[in-house]
Amino acid sequence: MLQHLTIVATGGTIDKIYFDDKSAYQIGAPQIGEILTQLGVAFAFEVIALMRKDSLHMDDADRDLIRRTILAQPHRHVLVTHGTDTMVETARALAGIPGKTIVLTGALNPARFQGSDAVFNIGCAVGAIQALPDGVYIAMNGRVWDPARVRKNREANRFEAS
Questions:
Q1: pLDDT tens digits for 94-125?
Q2: How far apart are CA 150 and CA 145, in angstroms?
Q3: Active-site residues: which are they?
Q4: 4-161: CATH number
């Protein structure tokens, strides 16, 4: 049973906001805490706003920081919000962390946008994290993926088996 969920927010489309005066997207504060609060979830959670990066700008040092942050957490269940373009690479970099169930999720459209997949993906990730054994997983497009067997199809804008 999920008693406590640690959320490590790294940025990505899920947290993007639109500025009319700049005509550009920027990554804002993590949206997941507000989403979970509005949904009235029946578990405690904390959000660690680790970085605000587009995943295309993430490097090995960023992935190492995410890994070290997760290792330092006392709780077993860790959800990572992440940009979709390099989510698979980060998930693979987190492999082998003992005693944790880690699920990465994100969104193909910003959480603040009507029709975003963010809430659906978060719900799928929260359900998965409670049912899965220790390990690292990706929850996107209504499925739970093994990071070793998935890729993002940029043309179709979805995750699929690799």
A1: 999 999 999 999 998 888 888 889 999 999 99
A2: 6
A3: 13
A4: 3.40.50.1170
